[in-house]
Specification:
Layout: H1 20-23, H2 34-37, H3 91-94, E1 98-101, H4 107-112, E2 117-121, E3 136-139, H5 141-152, E4 201-203, H6 220-223, E5 238-242, H7 244-253, H8 258-265, E6 288-291, E7 298-308, E8 314-320, E9 326-331, E10 334-337, E11 343-352, E12 358-366, E13 371-379
Parallel strand pairs: 1-2, 2-3, 6-13
Antiparallel strand pairs: 4-5, 5-7, 7-11, 8-10, 8-12, 9-11, 12-13
Length: 382
């Protein structure tokens, strides 16, 4: 047993989450369809961190404690330093007590030292939710200083952390302030941009719940098509299918060189002849947006293609919400399908004058069973 550092009793841990599943109608009672849910690849793309950032500087740190048994396994261009180390707490002094921490991430040290709970100062927005593995409360700097003042002015300070209370928010869902906003800085014609490599992309954003613009002031630039509806995604009716070749054409229309294009595609792709004359707005996305000039007449067309994945024999009719001083036309207004996986193309023409910085409308294709919605946004920069 010389190599055993410590032994801990086995504990049963329970999943800690919010009401997100119930909110989306995806609770435990939902009938699962394994044949649909299987064979799906979910990718998470993260830009990572920059180890050389001042935030990770180890200047002023002493050497790691001798009892530190961990190791820093640096990857390519990653330099390890003395900052891998948590501040240690004396478990004899904090066990069974509520610990006050000046950072929201201090809970880990308090937990490992056996504290009963922790009061944590946070500088983050109250819109950000935290889940802790033991009783804890994240408070603002003002609240933190008041608690600290009470603690320092009382011989025997007392505290109690009550169980959280779940309430129903009638304004939900709302996009948080720290969430990114459109239009996309690199491709303004795209509301919410996504690049996928080596796979086909079927966009299900057209099945999202419509969100309330009165509680989301940035409208579609904040929530895109809306809040995803996972149950409708099982049977969408129509989908906007976008292939890798479509993304390559879109990138080429932005003037990318073959070298840069290949670094993105991961293969020997080259820009098709004449692709520089195409427009990114014609990428087969379920959303449509365009930048125009203020108080200047405009006429814009969007070319789209949908694939039938609903009923073999189906007829979809177009319904467009019109805007003041703006005309929106769909050609054709009816799409008739005779088989599954059949494709139909249509053109949307938006014309008029933008007297407001942001104009929002939508197109809905419906066969009486399925409703496939696409936002239409026209805007100008002030």
């Amino acid at each position: 047993m010389d190599r055993v550092v410590s032994v801990f009793p086995s504990r049963t841990l329970h999943l800690q989450t919010t009401r997100s599943w119930d909110f989306m109608g995806f609770n435990e009672s939902v009938t699962r369809k394994r044949n649909i849910e299987s064979n799906i690849i979910v990718g998470v793309i993260d830009t990572g961190i920059w180890p050389e950032s001042d935030s990770f500087s180890d200047e002023g740190f002493g050497t790691p404690p001798k009892k530190w048994k961990g190791a820093c396994e640096g990857g390519k261009n990653f330099t390890c330093n003395k900052a891998c180390v948590f501040e240690c707490l004396d478990s004899r002094k904090v066990k069974g007590k509520i610990i006050i921490c000046d950072t929201v991430f201090g809970y880990q040290g308090a937990l490992e030292a056996g504290a009963a709970g922790s009061i944590l100062q946070t500088f983050l927005s109250k819109e950000e939710a935290f889940i802790f593995p033991f009783p804890a409360s994240a408070v603002s700097s003002k609240e933190y200083n008041a608690i600290l003042s009470y603690k320092n002015s009382t011989k025997n300070p007392q505290a109690e952390i009550l169980k959280s209370e779940a309430i129903k928010n009638s304004t939900a869902p709302v996009v948080t302030k720290f969430s990114s906003r459109g239009p996309n800085s690199l491709v303004p014609e795209i509301l919410k941009f996504m690049l996928l490599n080596r796979i086909n992309f079927i966009d299900l954003f057209s099945l999202a719940w419509t969100m309330d613009p009165s509680t989301n002031s940035d409208g579609e630039f904040a929530y895109g098509s809306g809040h995803i509806n996972p149950l409708k995604a099982i049977n969408p009716g129509l989908v906007y299918e976008t292939l890798k070749t479509d993304y390559i054409k879109m990138l080429c229309s932005r003037g990318l060189s073959d070298k840069v294009l290949r670094s993105i595609s991961g293969d020997n792709s080259t820009c098709p002849k004449g692709s520089e004359k195409e427009s990114p707005k014609d990428l087969n996305y379920p959303s449509m947006s365009a930048e125009v000039k203020q108080d200047t007449p405009f006429k814009i067309t969007f070319n789209r293609t949908v694939t039938n994945v609903g009923f073999p024999n189906s007829v979809y009719k177009a319904n467009v919400s019109q805007l003041q001083n703006v005309s929106i036309k769909v050609e054709p207004e009816v799409l008739s399908f005779k088989s599954l996986n059949e494709k139909k193309s249509f053109v949307i023409t938006v014309s008029g004058s933008a007297g407001k910085p942001f104009l929002s409308s939508s197109l809905v294709w419906s066969d009486g069973k399925h409703s496939v919605r696409s936002p239409i946004v026209v805007y100008y920069s002030s």
